[in-house]
Structures are given as C-alpha cells and as structure tokens.
Amino acid sequence: MSVRARPTSPHLQIYRWTVTMAMSIIHRATGIANYGGMALLAIWLVAAAIGQDALTSVNYIYGSWFGQLVLFGFTWSLVHHMCGGLRHFVWDFAVMMEPGQRDKMAWATLGASVAITLLIWTVFVWMA
Ligand code: HEM
C-alpha cells in the first residue's frame, strides 16, 4: 500500500531555525535565568546583612572560578534580556517588522549583549 505524503504538523525538528526564533526562545530562557541570578543577589545581600563571616563565605563561593562563570552568565542573561526587552519596545511602535529588519535587530541584540557584558566585566571586575 502506498503511503500518501500528508501535511506534517510543525515542531522543532521540522522548523528551519531562524535567528528571530532562536532569540525568542533565548529571551524566555534568559528571563527564567534572571530569577536564579536575582536569588544569588538576594543571598549576597542577606549575607551582608548577617555579618562579616557570612559575607566572607558567600564572597569565597562567588569568587571561585565556578562562581565567576555563573556571575558572568547572569550578567549576560540580564543584559541580553534587557536588549530583547528594548527590541520589543521598538516593535511597540510598529516599526522594524519586515523580515530583513527583524533579522538585523535579532543579530544586533546578540552582538550588543555580548559587547555590553564584556564592557561591564572589563570595567567593574577585570580592571577594578
Ligand atoms: C531580573 C529581571 C527580570 C526577570 C526575572 C524577567 C523575567 C522574564 C520572564 C520569565 C519572561 C518570559 C515570560 C513568558 O515568556 O511568558 C520575560 C519576558 C519579558 N521581559 Fe523580562 N525579566 C526581567 C527583566 C526585564 C527587563 C529589564 C526588561 C526590559 C528592558 C524585560 C522585558 C521583557 C519583555 C518585553 C518580555 C516579553 C517578551 C515577549 O513578549 O515575548 N524584562 N521576562
């Protein structure tokens, strides 16, 4: 019996990946990651309120290579999410919605988030 080619319901393996699709997913992922990062900030503030010993312990963990990696990732997540938020803000004015323009804005969001994150760490961590 011959099998008729039927229309297939789209899912992740069928969609051709586009930069706008990836940015949309990353925007939600970074939004979720920001909750975790804010928890880390809250822990640091609570430790500072408790006293020097607690703060030293938290600083020791956050200052380790793994802690620094997580904090770098959190910085990028926050900055990328903010850039994505500004992209949505631009769209609120019903501009930059054509396919080519959407792609350019998506790449610009990614580029700006990496550049701003590196700038923040250069000024406030590596050169401080
Ligand atoms: C710690 C701070 C933040 C957290 C925890 C956070 C969290 C989130 C999460 C979880 C979502 C996804 C909601 C969903 O898809 O249902 C989201 C969406 C969004 N966030 Fe944030 N966010 C933060 C900061 C910001 C900032 C600073 C901006 C703007 C500059 C922003 C703009 C947006 C926008 C516009 C959306 C909706 C995107 C869409 O409609 O697809 N967020 N946020």
TrEMBL record:
It is a multi-pass membrane protein. It is found in: Membrane. GO terms for cellular component: membrane. GO terms for molecular function: electron transfer activity; metal ion binding. The heme is bound between the two transmembrane subunits. Its cofactor is heme. Keywords: Heme, Iron, Membrane, Metal-binding, Transmembrane, Transmembrane helix. The chain crosses the membrane at residues 32-50, 62-79, 106-127. InterPro entries: SQR/QFR_C/D (IPR034804), Succ_DH_cyt_bsu_CS (IPR018495), Succ_DH_cytb556 (IPR014314), SuccDH_FuR_B_TM-su (IPR000701). SUPFAM superfamilies: Fumarate reductase respiratory complex transmembrane subunits (SSF81343). GO terms for biological process: tricarboxylic acid cycle. Membrane-anchoring subunit of succinate dehydrogenase (SDH). Part of an enzyme complex containing four subunits: a flavoprotein, an iron-sulfur protein, plus two membrane-anchoring proteins, SdhC and SdhD. The complex can form homotrimers. This is Succinate dehydrogenase cytochrome b556 subunit. The lineage of its organism: Bacteria, Pseudomonadati, Pseudomonadota, Alphaproteobacteria, Hyphomicrobiales.
